[in-house]
Amino acid sequence: MKKHRVHTKESFWRRTENYRIALLYLLPSIVLFSLFMFYPMINSLYLSFFFTDAQGEPTTFVGWENYLYLFQSESFRKSVVATLLFVLYTVPPSVILALFLALIANENLKGIGIFRTIFASTLGMSVAASAVIWLFMFHPTAGVLNSFLSLINLPSVNWLQDSTMALISVAITTVWMNTGFSFLIILGGLQNIDRDLYESSRIDGASYFYQLRRITVPMLSPTLFFIITITFINSFQSFGQIDILTGGGPAEATNLIIYSIYREAFIYYQFGPASAQAILLFLAVLVLTLLQFKFGERKVHYQ
After folding, report:
1. CA geometry: angle at 58 spanning 56 and 64, to 5°?
2. What is the C-alpha separation between 289 and 236, in angstroms, rounded?
3. Is a pLDDT exceeding 90 seen at residue 22?
4. Can you give 125-166 as a three-state secondary structure string?
5. Domain residue limits, the chain
6. What burial letters (b/e) apply to 66-96, b meaning 16+ CB within 10 Å?
7. Which H/E stretch holds residue 51?
8. Contact of 26 with 37, CB cutoff 8 Å
9. Structure pTM?
C-alpha cells in the first residue's frame, strides 16, 4: 500500500512538471500584474465604498453613496458625454487615416521607404512632446494653424479656449499621436496578404477598388479588428494631452472621465468618488470591449 502511494505521488509530480515550469516562467509577469494591476483594482474597489482623508486612508464606510453621488453629479454627466464624443472623434478617424496611409505606403514605388518613416514617426514621440508641439500650433496668435487661416482670409479659431473646439482640438492631437502605431500594424497586415490573389483578380479584370473591397479589407479584417480594439481602449485612457493642452477646460468641455478621476483624487483629495469613477470606467470599457468582440468579430475573416 505504501509503495502504491509513493508511486502515485511521483506520477502526479511528473505529470505536472510542464505546468510547474510554465508557472515559473510566468511568475515575473504574475508578480508585476499583481502589484501594478490587480492590487490597485481591488484597492480602488475597496476605497469606492468609503469616505477618505487627504492621505487616501478610508475613514467612514458609506456603501453605495459614492456611486449615487456620481449619478447625481452634473460634472460627472458632462464627463461621460465628453468621453463618448472624444471616442467618436478619435477612433474612426485614427483607423481610417492609418489605413489610407498604409495603402499608400504598401505600393511598390521608388522612395516609398522615406514616406513610411514619416508616417510612422509619431510612434517614437512621447505624449508630452506631441502635446507641446500641438500646443504651439493651436496658439491663438502665433500658432501655425491660425496663421494659415489668415493667409486664406478666414477668421482665427480659439482652438483650446472655445468649449466646442477644445474637444475637437484634443481629438486631432490624439489622432495624430495614434496614427504611427496603427499605420505600422496595418502595413504589416497588408504585406502579409498573398500577392497571388491580386494577380488573379487583375487577370480577371478587377479594378483597384474592387480588389480593396473584396480582397484587401476581408484579408485585413483581423488586423483592423485588433487596431480598432486597441484604439478604442486607448481613447478611454487618454490623459497626457488633455492635461497639457486644456487641463480639462474650458467649462469642463474636455474633462474626460480619466481626467476627472485625476482631479477628484489628486487635486480635491476625494479618493472615494475617484475610485468609484475608476470602477465605473473599468466596467464601461469591459462591457463595450466584450460587445465589440461579440458582434465585431463576426465580420473578421481569419486566414
Report:
1. 115
2. 11
3. no
4. CCHHHHHHHHHHHCCCCCCHHHHHHHHCCCCCCCCCCCHHHH
5. 2-33, 73-299
6. bbeebeeeeebebbbebbebbbebbbebbbe
7. strand 50-52
8. no
9. 0.88
Helical ranges in the chain per DSSP H: 2-15, 17-33, 39-47, 65-72, 74-105, 112-119, 127-137, 144-151, 163-191, 195-203, 208-211, 217-236, 240-245, 257-266, 271-291
Q: pLDDT, tens digit, for every residue of 244-264?
A: 999 998 989 999 999 999 999
Burial 119-133 (b: 16+ CB within 10 A, else e): bbebeeeebeebbee
CA distances (Å), origin 64, targets 51, 55, 202, 276: 11, 21, 63, 9
CATH 3.10.50.40 for domain 73-299, yes or no, is no
Q: What are phi and psi of 300, to 5 degrees?
A: -90, 130
Amino acid at 203: I
> Distance from first CA to last CA of the chain, Å, rounded?
55
- 131-144 tens-digit pLDDT: 999 999 999 888 99
What CA–CA distances, in Å, run from 172 to 31, 154, 251? 37, 20, 19
Residues 6+ apart with CB under 8 A from 284: 236
